[in-house]
Automatic annotation (TrEMBL):
It comes from the Bacteria. This is N(6)-L-threonylcarbamoyladenine synthase. Pfam families: TsaD. It catalyses: L-threonylcarbamoyladenylate + adenosine(37) in tRNA = N(6)-L-threonylcarbamoyladenosine(37) in tRNA + AMP + H(+).
Amino acid sequence: MADEPLVLGIETSCDETGVGIVRGHTLLADAVASSVDEHARFGGVVPEVASRAHLEAMVPTIQRALKEAGVAASDLDGIAVTAGPGLAGALLVGVSAAKAYAYALGKPLYGVNHLASHICVDQLEHGPLPEPTMALLVSGGHSSLLLAPDITSDVRPLGSTIDDAAGEAFDKIARVLNLGFPGGPVIDRIAREGDPDAIAFPRGLTGPRDAAYDFSFSG
């Protein structure tokens, strides 16, 4: 395994600074710095606050990941970084840091679509993906149905949210009801104590549409 590539990955698409180090398909380190507490008083993620938090956390988080993996920066064979989608300012911090490390170390730099990475990471746990792969992606800012004949070069969106992703809808509901941030965990907990038949909600997106695989969570 020592001859497999050693890659450092940086993820800053939203409110968490994530740094991972892999050798081949083996995860050696996973360091995360969250700024969720800084956003809680606003009831949601504030892009400018997230960007500043990434800037402050970047170098310490990378150093923590290198220490956890037991490697030096000079041992790396490449740098990967989320190039999108995400918050523009937050992405800028991650991409700038990745460019700086790649330039200083003389290593190749790889920009990565983090939605495709959500699918790829399954390989670390379960091995190679079947070809083609269809994936349902549900994250804080994205709900998507993706067809991936080739995860490295051919990822096709079949459907996505037309308004807010599930995580965004949870946060907005929690803010209106003064339940705190993030909204998903507390709403999930309270919902278990409620009556599922109390309100007859209509079924959404049941009519004829051009994009039959789209989602809607906020109305």
